[in-house]
Amino acid sequence: MKHHLSTLSVLHYVYGVLICVIGFVLLSLVFFGTVLNSSWMQEEMGNAPPLFVGTFLYGLGWFLFILVEVHGVLNLISARMIDKRKGHTFTQVVAALNCLNIPFGIALGIFTFVVLGDKEVRMEYGMVA
Questions:
Q1: Domain annotation covers residue 129
Q2: DSSP-H helix ranges across 26-87
């Protein structure tokens, strides 16, 4: 089961980068919110949306960006900790957070729990089996 740790580390790296890229896509909400609140939009459209719509999209975009980026960075940190055979509990917490994302996050989370729960892997981490 120890050879699964390197696979698990790579999967956490890939998943972390994927989540971070998705976070940058969410910045499009910030762009749309800014455009909706611009004076150009207000002048060009006769029936421009109310200002709170643009403000809401702007705030939502930044909130989701920060939330998703933190999740991605946690996965990258977890991958590094798996490489170093440290942070067993931290990796399990990140795996639990990954389980909130269907379907890839839950698959990675379950695989993480299975690998980290093995007796041989626990000994690799220096824990009492």
A1: no
A2: 27-37, 39-44, 51-84
Q: What is the dihedral of CA 76, 108, 104, 72, to 10 degrees?
A: -20
Query: For residue 100, what are the contacts with CB-CB under 8 A and spacing of at least 6?
Result: 106
**Is 79 a domain residue?**
yes
pLDDT in tens, 73-89: 999 999 999 999 999 99
| Within-domain flag for 36 | yes
**Which pLDDT tens digit goes with each residue over 41-54?**
777 777 777 888 88
User: Is 31 domain-assigned?
Assistant: yes
Angle between helix 88-98 and helix 104-116 axes, rounded to 10 deg: 150
- Say how many domains are in the chain: 1
- Residue 120's domain spans which residues? 4-124
3-state secondary structure of 87: coil
Residues 8 and 82 sit within 8 Å (Cβ to Cβ): yes
Per-residue tokens: 9: 């580390």
